[in-house]
Amino acid sequence: MTHGRLHFRSIDFYIHRMRFRTLLAVPFVAIALVGCGSSSGGGGGSSASAPAGATVVKAIEGIAWDAKTYTATPVGGKVTIAIENDSSLPHNLHLIDKDNVDVGISLSVTGKSDVKSASVTLAPGTYKVICTIAGHGNMKSTLTVA
Questions:
Q1: Residues 6+ apart with CB under 8 A from 25
Q2: Angle at 136 between CA 122 and CA 129, to 5 degrees
Q3: What is the pLDDT at residue 146?
Q4: What is the rounded distance in angstroms from the CA atom of residue 21 to the CA atom of residue 64?
Q5: Is there a contact between 54 and 80 (Cβ–Cβ < 8 Å)?
Q6: What is the tens place of the pLDDT at every residue in 80-105?
Q7: pTM of the complete model beyond 0.90
Q8: With pLDDT > 70 as the criterion, what percentage of the chain qualifies?
Q9: b/e map of 116-138 (b: 16 or more CB within 10 Å)?
Q10: Which among 65, 75, 54, 73 is positioned nearest to 129, based on CA atoms?
Q11: What residues form DSSP beta bridges with 92?
């Protein structure tokens, strides 16, 4: 017996170290499993999908919209427009009327799979769908409101 000194065998370090790692891993696994559940709450104005009945305009790779023309039918006097980002770049969506006036809808998406939507009162006619971010000038399509 030696006084004031502790003696350890190398096996003691190994066993304790493994127990410590095992115990630490359990809370992280539990947190990860809890985080994998689906969320039913809303908030933030961004969602995984566009609202039912919305006219969906998708930004795609190559700094473009997914179609040259879109059609929208008003419901209760309003048109619901959604922008969905299938691109790795941020984009925005503005509607321009026949007099080259922005109708006041401005939706921005920052990351891939980001979706934003808004409802706006639009008169029947044709509108330009554009992205106003510098360098995104080729993102031009047409929206026809019935």
A1: none
A2: 15
A3: 93
A4: 49
A5: yes
A6: 999 999 999 999 999 999 999 999 99
A7: no
A8: 68
A9: bbbbeebeeeebbbbbeeeebee
A10: 65
A11: 108
Place of tokens 């961004």: 46
Torsion angle (degrees, nearest 10) of CA 95, 98, 104, 105: -20
Tell me the two tokens of residue 71: 């059609």
Q: Give the helix ranges, DSSP H, for the chain.
A: 10-35
Rounded Cα distance between 82 and 119, Å, is 9
Residues 60, 90 contacting (CB under 8 angstroms): no
- pLDDT higher than 80, residue 31: no
The CB density around residue 142, as the number of other CB atoms within 10 Å, is: 14
CB 91 within 8 A of CB 61: no
| The pair of three-digit structure tokens given for residue 83, joined into one six-digit string | 């922008």
* Token reading at 85: 């980002």
Could you tell me where the beta strands, DSSP code E, fall in the chain?
55-60, 64-65, 69-72, 79-86, 91-96, 102-109, 115-120, 125-130, 140-145
Look at the block and give the residue holding tokens 């509607």.
Answer: 95
Count of residues making up the chain: 146
- Are 144 and 69 contacting, i.e. CB atoms less than 8 angstroms apart? yes
